[in-house]
Design goal:
With 401 residues, the chain is of the alpha+beta class. It has 14 helices and twelve strands. The strands form three sheets. Strands 5-6-1-7-8 form a five-stranded mixed beta sheet. The protein has a four-stranded antiparallel beta sheet with strand order 9-12-10-11, covered by helices on one side. It has a three-stranded mixed beta sheet with strand order 3-2-4. Strand 7, helix 6 and strand 8 form a beta-alpha-beta unit. Helix 4 packs antiparallel against helix 5, helix 10 crosses helix 11 and helix 12 crosses helix 13. The protein is globular and about 60 Å long.
Length: 401
Amino acid sequence: MSRAPRSQSARRALGTDDSETPILHVDMDAFFVEVELLQRPHLRGLPVAVGGAERGVVTSASYEARAFGVTSAMPVGQAKRLCPHLIMIPVSHGAYSTVSRRVMDILGSFTPVLEQVSVDEAFLDVSGDRHRTPTQIASEIRTAIRAGEGVPASVGIAATKHVAKIASAHAKPDGMLLVPKEETATFLADLPIGAIWGVGDATRKRLEQRGISSVRDVRQLRREDLERMLGKHGGSLWDLAHGSDPRPVVTTRVEKSIGKEETYFEVLRDPAVVRARMLDQAHECARRLRDRSLVAWRVSIKVRDASFTTISRSHTLGQPTNVAQEIYRVASSLMVMPPGGVRLIGVRVENLERGESSQATLEDDGRAEQAERALDTIRKRFGSGVAGPATLLPSKPEDGL
C-alpha cells in the first residue's frame, strides 16, 4: 500500500477534458486485504490487516484499519495498540499473484501498451483507442476488474506517468481522478514534496531542512540549485515538479533473470516448510520461463537467516531448462538450512535465452515438462490452487478465518 503523502485539496475535480491524457495508472486498493476478504466476506467493513503474528509486521491494511493509523511495515504489536480490535490474517502465498495475473489479463484486453510495475499496479497507454476516451476506458477497467475478480481498483488519468500515478493515489479508495493536461501545474502545486515520485524520507528531510516542503517551493528554485543539493536526482525532481515526464509506457523489457523471493514475518525453522516454499518458487520460475519461451542455464538461491545475514549460491547447468523439477533439484542441493531459521528464501534462474527445454533428452523423455505445461493450462483457466504438487496445495481454511 502506498505510503506517499497526499493532499486533500488535490482530490477535487479539475475538469473533464481528457483529450490529451492517454496515460492511465491502475492501482489496486488494499490488494492483499481485498483478496483475503474474497474468502472472508464476513470481515468486510472491519479493521483488517494482512501480515505476521505478534512479532511480525503489517503487509497491507484495510481502510478501516488505516483510520486508526495502521500502515504497512508497521510492527503488529504497534498496530494492535493503535487498533485493539484489529483482525490479523496470515499471508496467503500464491493467492495474490494468481489474482494479479488475471487482473493484468483484464488490463491487457483494453490495450497492448501495458507496463506492469508491481503485483497490484500498472500503467496503460490508451492513445491507440479511437472509439473510447481515456475516462471511458478507465471506468470500464474498474467495472471489469470488480466484475471479474471482486476487488476494487483506483485509476489516475493524466498526460504523463508521473501525474497519473499521483492521481490514482488521490483517487483512493475505489475511485478515479482525471488531471487534464492544462491543469497539471495546478494539480501538482500544493502537493507535499514527498508526493513526488522518487522522493523518499531521506530526500524529503534534506529538503524540509532548507524550507522546501511543497512542489510549489521547488518551483521557486532554479534547476541548478536542486542539482547542487541532490546531484542528478535534483534535476529529475525539478522536471517532475514542473510536470515534465517524457517516459513512455514500456511494454517489453529484455529479461536477464526470472526469480521469486519471499520474506517471512516469522522465522521459518522447519526444513520441510522451507523446501516447500522453494518448490513453489521453482514452479513460478519455470512457468514464467515457459510463458516467455525462454530457458535458463543457471539456478541461484538467496537465503537470509535470523541474524539478517544473507547468503547467495548458484550453479550452472549442463543443459538449459524451463522445468520446475530440475530447477528445484538444483536449488535444494544449494540450500543449507541456517541454525536459527530462515527470514527470506528466493529462487532465481539466470543466463536466459530463447528456446525450449533440453530436458526431453533426459531419462524421463520430457514427461516432466509435458506435465508442467498441462498444469500451466489448468492453472490459467481455474487458478493456481486447483492443481500442483501435493505439498503446495492449500489446506482447507479454518472456520471463522
